[in-house]
Amino acid sequence: MKDDNNKQDSTKSSGRKKSDQIKSLEQRVTELEEQLARAVADYRNLEKRFEDEKREFVKFANRDLLLRLIPAFDTLVLAEKYVTDEGIKITIKHLQESLRDVGVEKIQTEDQIFNPETMEALSTSEGEENKVLEELRPGYTLNGKLLRPAQVKVGKEVATSD
Predict the structure, then answer these.
(1) Positive or negative CA dihedral for 120, 124, 125, 129?
(2) Is 159 exposed, middle or buried, given 0-12, 13-18 or 19+ CB atoms closer than 10 A?
(3) Average confidence score pLDDT of the chain
């Protein structure tokens, strides 16, 4: 009878050990599944960030080229003031459309308050305080970021003496 009790105790003991092992393994599987889920989420976030950075790079990849072309565009616009040639007007119009298509926008300065983030004040003159009186060189943004600041003449109130 002792043998039977020993066998039962041994069976119960090994059953408990197996049950504990199963619980331990199930817990380990759960931990590994959670780690895998986190790793997959991290990877997807990394992919998304990489795609965002790539899109951002493409948006601004032409920045240097545009900075070299804009002075030539400025010269055409200046020539238009002194020459009555339809070809120049058409060329300027096409260039403006092309620049707009790649995200270049002219900074509006006319009748604006001076904005040091998008404008450079080259001189001041008597006039309404901090108001742009004249645009000396146009400025541009590329996809909402400053490409070249506008150079302007800004108004300054003159103190009157009594």
Answers:
(1) positive
(2) exposed
(3) 89
